[in-house]
Amino acid sequence: MPPNRLPVTPSAVSASSAASDALSSLDTQPFLTQLLAQQSPFGELAVVSSFGAESAVLLHLVATVNPETRVVFLDTGFHFPETLAYRDELIARLGLQRRSDHRH
Fold first, then answer.
1. Are 51 and 81 found together in one domain?
2. Over the stretch 16-62, which tens digit does the pLDDT of each residue have?
């Protein structure tokens, strides 16, 4: 079983449900702080981003809370060069970790 992964048992499902219930009442910053904590009851997490203009706000919040959070970018091979440059600049500026998935 991968590290930080809860076994799928009734007690694990119950723990995930309790954690989900606790998160549902939080505002954005406390929500991300709890969700992206090192010992998340949800296991290892990543953020998926298109790196569009609206992505910068969420990525800034993620970087503020936990810059070690992996950011997944689906590289379709059809992105404009400006999109890729913006992605690289934003990752560097915010100090995030990028993981590209190539799907050509």
1. yes
2. 677 777 788 889 888 888 888 766 666 778 889 988 888 899 999 99
Same-domain check for residues 57 and 87? yes
Q: Are 90 and 51 in contact (CB under 8 A)?
A: yes
CB atoms within 10 A of CB 90: 19
Q: Residues 25, 58: one domain? A: no
Domain residues for 40?
1-44
d(CA 15, CA 6): 9
Choose the weakest-confidence range: 1-10, 42-51, 73-82, 93-102. Answer: 1-10
Are 37 and 50 contained in the same domain? no
Query: What's the structural domain count of the chain?
Result: 2
Q: In angstroms, rounded to a whole number, what is the distance separating the alpha carbons of residues 49 and 45?
A: 13
